[in-house]
Amidase domain-containing protein (Lysinibacillus xylanilyticus), 164 residues
Amino acid sequence: MAKMYNRQAAVQYANLWWNRRNPAFPNFTVDCTNYISQCLLAGGAPMRGAPNRERGWWVQHSNWSFSWSVAHSLRWYLEGSKNGLKGRRVQSAEELDLGDVIFYDFQGDGRIDHSVIVTSIQNGIPYVNAHTSDSINRPYFYEDSTAYTPSMTYYYIHIDDSFA
């Protein structure tokens, strides 16, 4: 039987750890994707690929895959994965659910710079939590961010409900 993504558990974790660091995991100066990975793991996402840092999505003690900690790598992992944790890019924020992920390309140059998790939806608009500049229940637009540019591109990723 396929294991299901527990969106509520992912959101609960996101809300518990939004402004602090879980000592069970590595801590990064740029911590956004490490935090998102922890949220996905809390939702039941299975790790695979260890110990090869260039394969899969995983963390073990003081070692981890690039996709665990680098936004650009996690985006490609989610969209390319054929089993376990996978996601698909959708066209609009309105297609997202709790526990889904949004990636930001601040310069619009095709390189992902930031990742957040959807923790609530209010009037059809996803609100998100993030690390690095820790934030909770923030509108996903990020127009008030110091990193915002008019060229900013959003990548809306719907996490598959089943980890088959």
